[in-house]
Write a structure and sequence with these properties.
single chain, alpha/beta, two-stranded antiparallel ribbon, 8 helices, 10 strands
């Protein structure tokens, strides 16, 4: 049986390099952790493609907030795909909804066409769509390769039952990629449904800032503590997932 694949979302070059060294199989390169991921810089992808051999899927999301995009925003997303594809992106991660909560198939198909055959993941916009069963079929019809999902809930812990059902319903038509609060103990539970091929886990942690000076009055974020630490990835957490994957 083919072993499970571990994908990790990374928001910094540091985290990306460490994730690869720790044994992560594929990266989802993003920016802006606070918004749940946005399109990263072209420079970050270009740099990482020179350093790493593992696949890098790139988030295409022009802003935070909802997933209902204007024509201008779709145009920007298409341009980002063009640029990042030219820099070696191995795949893309995006999703577009209509204002009524259904999948915007037209916009998704335009973006998929721009990817020119590279594998694309429909991200967790799926989890806030109107009807998961209907959305699953629409996403398959569009031509996506996988769906990142927490089962229509805030976390995998809450959506386990639905994720297992989605894996069964998807069969061999599309990969269901569980993610969003995934824990190592979820892996064997999800395996019981059969058909699980990949998992998505941030394995995030924070390290202390290397700055020896913290301004006492000026804060460039709503969270003054943010300047004392830097988001990165935990080797211990990655190893926990790798062990859970081996034991299944």
């Amino acid at each position: 049986m083919t072993r499970l694949l571990l994908e990790a979302p990374v928001f910094t070059v540091e985290a990306a390099l460490k994730a690869a060294a720790f044994g992560v199989d594929r990266l989802e390169l993003c920016s802006d952790f606070g918004e749940g991921g946005e399109t990263p810089s072209a420079g970050a992808l270009a740099f990482l493609k020179q350093k790493l051999e593992i696949p890098i899927f790139v988030m295409i999301r022009p802003r935070g907030g909802d997933f209902v995009y204007s024509e201008d925003e779709i145009a920007v997303m298409k341009k980002d795909i063009q640029i990042l594809k030219s820099l070696g992106a191995d795949g893309f991660v995006f999703g577009v909804l209509n204002s009524d909560g259904n999948i915007n198939m037209g916009a998704c198909e335009e973006l998929l066409e721009e990817a020119q055959g590279l594998p694309c993941t429909f991200h967790r916009a799926f989890d806030i769509s109107l009807n998961l069963e209907k959305s699953l079929e629409a996403i398959i019809e569009c031509g996506f390769r996988r769906i990142l999902t927490s089962g229509g809930e805030n976390s995998v812990s809450e959506g386990l039952k639905t994720i297992r059902k989605l894996i069964v319903n998807a069969a061999d038509r599309i990969l269901i990629l569980p993610g969003g609060g995934l824990l190592p103990q979820h892996v064997p539970i999800l395996m019981e449904a059969g058909g699980l091929r990949e998992i998505h886990a941030s394995c995030k942690t924070y390290r202390n800032s290397e700055s020896t000076f913290i301004h006492p009055r000026v804060f460039l974020s709503n969270d003054p503590e943010s300047f004392k630490s830097v988001l990165t990835i935990s080797e211990y957490r990655v190893n926990q997932f790798l062990q859970a994957m081996k034991s299944t």
